[in-house]
Amino acid sequence: MPAGPLTGRIRVPGDKSISHRALMFGALAVGRSRISGLLEGEDVLATASALRSMGAVIEKDGQDWIVDGVGVGTLLQPEQALDMGNSGTSTRLLMGLLASHGIPATFIGDASLSRRPMGRVIDPLSTMGASFTPSPGGTLPLAMEGMQPAVPITYRLPVASAQVKSAVLLAALNTPGITTVIEPVPTRDHTERMLRSFGVDVQVEDRDGERAISVHGPCDLRPNDIVVPGDPSSAAFFAVAASIVPESDLVIENVGLNPTRNGIYRALREMGANIEYLEQREVGGEPVADLHVRHAPLSGIEVDPAIAPSMIDEFPVLFVAAAFAEGTTVTSGLEELRVKESDRLSAMAIALKSAGAQVEEKGDGLVIEGSGGRPLSGGGTIVTHLDHRIAMSMAVAGLASENGVEIDSTEPIGTSFPNFMNLLTEAAS
Ligand SMILES: O=C(O)C1=C[C@@H](OP(=O)(O)O)[C@@H](O)[C@H](O)C1
Ligand SMILES: C=C(OP(=O)(O)O)C(=O)O
C-alpha cells in the first residue's frame, strides 16, 4: 500500500558542495574559520580527514566546526594515501589544490569512485606543471606530484563541470600570475562566491557569451565564518515525494536556491508541482527559502538540456516524478550522468522499470511514460551500485508504489544525507 502523506516541517542537512569548499578554503586561510551547518556526511568527512593529514586542524565545537588553517603554499605532505571514499568532489578539488603545492600524494577511493574519469582534471593540471600517474583509463588509485611554482593557464572547460572549474581555480590560488577558466555553460558557482568571502579577488567577465573566471595568484585567504544553507539536492527528494504522494503538505526549511543549482524546482514547477518559496532571504551569501510543497498532478515535459548543469544531480529524482506524471517526459543531453557514482541513466531505467514504470533508455537521456498519478506496482529489488542518489530516488518511488520497493543497500545514503531514512519516515507518518 502506498505511504501516507508527507506533512509537517523538516530541515535537510547542509549543502554538500558548499561544505567541501568551506573546509578547503578554511584550511588555506591562516587562522581560525568557523562553519555552521556543515554537512556531516561521509563525502565531506573524507575532505576533512585529507585536509587534516596535510596540516589543518578541523574539529567540532558544539554545533559548529572550526578549522585552523595552514595557509596557501604551506600544506604538509600527507603520510598516507588520501582515501576519498565515494566522493568525486573531494578527489577532483583536492587534486587541484595539490597541483600547485610541490608535494606528492596518492588518491584512493571505493569501487564506484575508482571507475570515475580523472582525465578531465589531469589535463589542465598537467598543463600547469603537475605530474600524474593514474590507473589505466585515467582513474584512481592515482599518484601525483604538484609543481612549485605552477604555471598559470587559460582553460576552456570541454565538459560543463564545476569540479573541473574548481580544481583549476584551487590550483590558481598558489600559482603566480593570472589563471582563467572559461565556461561555455554556467555551472554551480559556490567556489567563486566563497573565495570572495575569504578575501580573494575573483574576476568574472563575459567573453563572447561565455563566463571567464580569473584569479591572480598567489593569494592570501583570510579566515571567515561560514553559514552553510540546506542542500537543494537533498531537499529535492522531499519535494518530489510530497508532489507525488496524495494529500501531502510539507515545508522544507532553509533550502539553498542558488540559480546555478535550482533547476529541479524550475522543472518540477513546469510539470505542475505546487512549490512555493517562503521567506526568501540570504544565508552565507547564497539565496535561501523555505519550500512549501503540496501534492499536485504532474504533467510530462520535454526538459531543455540547457537546464542540465543546474540540476545535474537531481535527474534521478526527476525521473521518479516523471514516472508519476500524466504523459511523456523526454530528457536529453545527459551523457554526464553516465560517469557519476553509477551510470545514472542505466541504473534509473532499470530501477524504474523493475518498479513497474514505462521507461526507454536513449544514449543521452530517458523517455518516460508516466502513470498519470496512479501508484506504480513496485515490488522489485533495486540495485543501487554504491550510488546514494539512486537509493534515495527509489525510496521516494517506493512511497507511491503498491508494494513499496526494496533497495539492495541504503548504506551509500550516508555519503550525502545520513538522516534521510529517518526524516522520510518521520515526514510520511
Ligand atoms: O562541484 C561540485 O561540488 C559538484 C559538481 C557536480 O559534478 P561535476 O562537476 O562532475 O558536474 C556535481 O555532480 C557534484 O555532486 C558536486
Ligand atoms: C555526483 C555526486 O557527487 P560527487 O561527484 O562528489 O561524488 C553527487 O553527489 O551526486
In short:
Helix content is 29%, strand content 26%.
Report on the architecture of this protein:
The protein has two domains: 16-221, UDP-n-acetylglucosamine1-carboxyvinyl-transferase, Chain (Alpha-beta prism), CATH 3.65.10.10; 230-427, UDP-n-acetylglucosamine1-carboxyvinyl-transferase, Chain (Alpha-beta prism). The protein contains twelve helices and 21 strands. The chain has helices at 16-28, 42-53, 88-99, 119-127, 162-172, 190-197, 232-244, 263-270, 315-323, 344-354, 388-399, 420-427; strands at residues 7-11, 30-36, 57-61, 64-70, 82-83, 104-108, 131-135, 139-145, 154-156, 177-183, 202-207, 210-217, 225-227, 249-256, 274-283, 286-294, 328-330, 358-361, 366-369, 381-382, 406-407. The chain has a four-stranded mixed sheet with strand order 1-14-16-15. Strands 3-4-2-13 form a four-stranded mixed sheet. Helix 7 runs parallel beside helix 9, helix 9 (315-323) packs parallel to helix 10 and helix 9 (315-323) packs parallel to helix 11. The protein is globular, with a radius of gyration of 21 Å. It starts with 6 loop residues before the first strand and ends with a helix. Bound molecules: shikimate-3-phosphate (S3P) and phosphoenolpyruvate. Residues 17, 89, 161-163, 166, 188, 312-313, 336 line the site of shikimate-3-phosphate (S3P). Residues 4-422 form the Enolpyruvate transferase domain. InterPro entries: Enolpyruvate_Tfrase_dom, Enolpyruvate_Tfrase_sf, EPSP_synthase, EPSP_synthase_CS, RNA3'P_cycl/enolpyr_Trfase_a/b. The active site is at residue 313. GO terms for molecular function: 3-phosphoshikimate 1-carboxyvinyltransferase activity.
